Amino acid sequence: MSVVTNTTTIGAIEAPSRRNTELALLAFAVAIPVFAYLNVGLAIDGKVPPGMLGYGAGLTLLAGVAHLVVRKFAPYADPLLLPLGTLLNGLGLVLIWRLDQSPRLIQRATSAYGSFSPDAPKQMLYSAIGIAMFVGVLLVLKDHRVLQRYTYISMVAALVLLLLPLVPGLGSDVFGAKIWINVAGFSIQPGEFAKLVLAVFFSGYLMVKRDALALASRRFMGLYLPRGRDLGPIVTIWAVSLLILVFENDLGTSLLFFGMFVIMLYVATERTSWIVIGLLMSAGGAVVVGSTASHVQSRVAAWLDPFGCLKTAPEGSNMANACDQMTQVLMSFGSGGILGTGLGQGNSDLIGFAANSDFIFATVGEELGLAGVMVFLLLYGLIIERGVRTALAARDPFGKLLAMGLSGAFALQVFVVAGGVMGLIPLTGMTMPFLAYGGSSVIANWALIGVLIRISDTARRPAPSPAPNPDAEMTQVVRP
Question: Signal peptide: which range, if any (predicted)?
């Protein structure tokens, strides 16, 4: 007796896409800012703000478009990145609108410029452009590995972006920092986009050179010191960072670029010596420039003793402005306490022109208290954690380095901004990602989220089923 059985090849188990989870989280990410908007309106005027419906509809539309694009073109992407970005962006819009309602801020702007223009509608427009950039990244960038082809082109593009603020007639000097360019009436900060392009260059370069950089010539005090010729890349990046600091007076961008490169260098080589060398070089450069550049000296003085330098600094000078802002920021955090004064019931608008950009985190500290500050830091930490998880899950070394570089740059920016506002380090003039007013920042950070989502989609996508074996299609089993 013979029995003939058919056997087929078992395909790969279909991995869950988690898009429904993302949709549910997006509902909360939209509802929380809308509730915060209502809370601010009730606190200021005692009634429902008239623009709440339009704000809620606009934020829902932006989140819905982004979700549909992810569902279609990146179905296996991380489900947390988009909701976290939407929540932070939405809360940032609420905080900016809250500061727009301040009578003191309106009076100050009217006396200085003759009129007052609210920033919240412009930030909503920038957010829409940022979502469009996010969508464009997912539509154009089908595979992140394509970026590896443009390693050295990325280096040239990054240098051009960094040098643009130094071009006469194009760059502008704002309170001592030359980090802006004016194009068709709009102010753009090229450094925000340069960090994305530099991450591509660092990833491509380190993927090729990581074996040479990992070699050690000798061991000294427990550290493996690299060979002399392998110090070239880090010395070059250190010199570029110093040039940025010297000519543009931009401490934040200098720290961001050099720190991102050292992080990626450590990930590529697994040598602790690179971290130590990077910290020593960064500290040495900061000491030299801090003792010669007046703009950096003002911020260091405001960091060390803001109340003391406010008394001694000449009235109207950069140092007096920096010290005055820092004293207001510290008093805002101090008056917030554990739970804060409540949304719309603080006085952080006294900080001045940068209340909704450089120092918007002070509004969080005053009106939401220490609890609110920890919540925001947790949200930023979740974005960083998902980026690192994406790097660990990536199947190619270029994707690993790129995801780690972008996550590291995001983490460094959050650290230098939050640390500067809270008095941990000197102020840097950078903007809090998604939260602060600024078109360049929100657009660049949405592009960063788009690249991370593309890498995570590739990393989480299930492997294709193996091709069927014709010999295994039909097996004859003979039983006695």
Answer: none
| Residues contacting residue 97 through CB under 8 Å, at least 6 positions apart | 37, 40, 51, 55, 118, 120
Q: Which of 310, 149, 177 is nearest to 251 (CA)?
A: 177
Q: Residue 386: CB partners within 8 Å, gap ≥ 6?
A: 78, 80, 81, 84, 452, 456
Beta bridge partners of 181: 171, 188
120 Cβ neighbours under 8 A, 6+ residues apart: 93, 96, 97, 100
Both tokens of 259, joined, read: 């720190």
Domain ranges of the chain: 2-478
Other CB atoms within a 10 A radius of the CB of residue 347 amount to 16
Chain segment 86-120, per-residue pLDDT in tens: 999 999 999 999 988 888 877 777 876 677 778 88
> Tokens in use for 191?
């450094």
Residue 13, both tokens: 């188990």
Q: Which helix (H) or strand (E) holds 181?
A: strand 177-183
Report the C-alpha gap between 404 and 390 in whole angstroms. Answer: 8
**Token pair in block for residue 322:** 């920096």
Residue whose structure tokens are 């590739």: 458
All residues at 6 or more sequence positions from 26 whose CB lies less than 8 Å from its CB, including other chains: 63, 64, 67, 82, 83, 86
